[in-house]
Amino acid sequence: MGHRQGSSSPLPGSGGASRSDWRVIKDLLPYLLEHRTRVALAIACLIAAKFANLGVPIILKDLIDAMNLKPGSLQIYLIVPAGLIVAYGALRLSASLFSELRELLFAKVTQDAVRKIALQVFEHLHALTLQFHLGRQTGGVSRDIERGTRGIQTLVSFSLYSILPTIIEFVLVLAYFAYYYDIWFAIITFVALVIYIVFTIKVTEWRTHYRRTMNEMDSRANQRAIDSLLNFETVKYFGNEDFESKRYDENLKHYQSAAILSQKSLAILNLGQQAIIAVGLVLILWRATQGVVDGSMTLGDLVLVNTLMIQLYIPLNFLGVIYREMKQSITDMDRMFALLSADQEIKDRENAPALVIYDFARGPEVRFENVYFSYNAKREILKDVSFTIPAGTITAVVGQSGAGKSTLARLLFRFYDVQSGMILVDGQNIQDVQQASLRKAIGIVPQDTVLFNDTIAYNIAYGSPGASLEAIQEAARAAQMSQFIEHLPEGYETQVGERGLKLSGGEKQRVAIARTLLKKPALLIFDEATSALDSKTERAFQEELFNLARNRTTLIIAHRLSTVVHADQILVMNQGKIIERGTHQHLLQANGRYTSMWQMQESSLSAPDDSGVNSA
Fold it and tell me: What letter would DSSP give residue 373?
């Protein structure tokens, strides 16, 4: 098929240089700032929790110093230490309380942002062109969305619950050291933390490409697995289970190699971090011990300094992991936001009106005027195609595979825009009207029917969501499948399986016919609608099809000429051009391409029907 030769342009951020981290964060902020009050309250609780957290070791220091009592001072022993113990417990409880309040307040902000962004990406993907989806692997896109939404939660969680609290505590500890103790305490702490942070960031940056390689291999393995499982029948037909396993294992081996290198680099990071922490603690404790010896500090001060440093270094132990995860989250978010930035290409013009069908019961007039179209510059599919389908009539298009027949249907749905010429529906250029109104007016039974992994009733009702069971049953009867459904144990609630694999080709096609009939469109398109039906069912459906088509404008794209003999107009296409047109009888009398096609198919009628379709 011509359309499979096109290639979609790569997504921004999906390969090559990504956008800056700050750009990604800037894209996220509007979703978070929709809840400004909650954000402000959460940050206030965060600051309060850190003040309470700082107060805990200070109270502990006072408690230790208060225990240095002279014999006989029973009153002080009963009041002062007891009050400090109560204050100590209250501060610890306050720190936990404010932390939980912060998480409670921010939970709605995070989840709301995740929901809105995921929904926006989902809607945007549906708004993109068919060309985009033909050039992308569904497994990879799904993985990008999954990682992106998870990345939002990770980034917000680490930023609000780890990085920001650590920065606030860092500032508070430095200020406390500088105000109450020797300035060297603040200097040593500051220098040690700066060295620690710089070392962590540099080494983590060095390790990032290993992590990125792991993700790429993970995505490829996932794409390979999903593609193989979606084509389960094809794999079984050719006995290629081992071949698929080897292809899958190839990506798993690359993932394994990258994971091992990532683990080795992590060991280097952890060892360097612990060395910096150890040196900083030794220097701080040495200064504190000197202060106790010369009398400028108490034992409580020594305990306080040690506790503050340990309290500060504990979250820093995870800085490498946090930084790496935040960087990875930003990368994952960038890929998801890149989906949002993918060009929609086929867009409604500003203030475009809805398509107006002047006589819905009869159907619209459809005109192709000098249409030129190609999926890519190397191969032109349609060349100066012009024809008219009068309102309420049936036009059939026949020709060899690759002649451009199915392209006519895609252009009518405006999956693509023509390079030259116009397509008019009731005199309105389809590029000037809303796409939603255009597609609402058209019903199609495609050549390749793909069903949702749900019930038969759901798949038929997809033509008109919310339709009653009676309407669904009526559509099934019109599609000549009600008898088959009623003999199933679960009837209309029968599950059709992934992509409808539990149904035969003919059964799937009849479901597609039924849901199109349920839609009751003004314009009907049958793209090889009976190609998967056996001869008996095809003949029964033909009568129903033409009864339905008498009241609507209909375009039939067919390979079997027997299905179009009653058409008001037959167009014969070859290499993107209309080479013959007329009624069945007129074309036979012309003794041209149509006549030779008819004779070839007539000669094959005596051959047995070996389609293998289970018509049930």
Answer: E
Residue 507 and residue 481 in contact, taking contact as beta carbons nearer than 8 Å = yes
Asked if the model's pLDDT at residue 63 lies above 80, the reply is no
- What's the predicted TM-score (pTM) here? 0.60
Q: How far apart are CA 531 and CA 97, in angstroms?
A: 68
**Digit-coded pLDDT (tens) for 166-196:** 888 888 888 988 888 888 888 998 998 899 8
Instruction: Give the CATH number of domain 446-520.
Output: 3.40.50.300
33 burial class (0-12, 13-18, 19+ CB within 10 angstroms)? exposed
User: 22 in helix, strand or coil?
Assistant: helix
pLDDT, tens digit, for every residue of 303-355?
888 888 888 877 777 776 787 778 778 888 887 787 777 766 778 888 889 99
Tell me the C-alpha distance between 599 and 588, whole Å.
10
pLDDT tens digits for 523-571? 988 887 666 566 666 666 666 666 666 667 999 988 778 778 888 999 9
The angle formed by the CA atoms of residues 440, 444 and 446, to the nearest 5 degrees, is: 145
Report yes or no: 524 and 443 within 8 Å, Cβ to Cβ: yes
Q: Which residue, among 138, 144, 137, 116, has the nearest Cα to 335 in the 3D structure?
A: 144
φ/ψ region of 345 (left if φ > 0, alpha if ψ in -120 to 50, else beta) reads: left
- The count of residues in the chain is 616
Report d(CA 511, CA 60) in Å as an integer: 75
Tell whether the model's pLDDT for residue 78 goes beyond 60: no
The strand order across the sheet containing 428-429 reads: 382-389, 366-373, 420-425, 428-429
Measured between its terminal Cα atoms, the distance across the chain in Å is: 31
Rounded to whole angstroms, the Cα distance separating 521 from 444 reads 9
CA distances from 81 to 87, 409, 520 (A): 10, 86, 84
Tokens 């307040």 belong to residue: 105
CATH class of segment(s) 348-441+523-603:
alpha beta
User: What's the token pair of residue 539?
Assistant: 């003949």
The DSSP secondary structure of 380-418, one letter per residue, reads --EEEEEEEE-TT-EEEEEESTTSSHHHHHHHHTTSS--
In order of 214, 229, 234, 242, 585, the CA distances from 239 in angstroms are 30, 14, 8, 8, 48
Residue ranges per domain, the chain? Answer: 108-341, 348-441+523-603, 446-520
Q: Which CATH class is domain 108-341?
A: mainly alpha
In CATH terms, are 348-441+523-603 and 446-520 the same topology? yes
| Tens of pLDDT, residues 460-492 | 888 888 888 888 888 888 877 888 888 888 888
Question: If you search the block for the tokens 């935040």, which residue do you land on?
Answer: 326
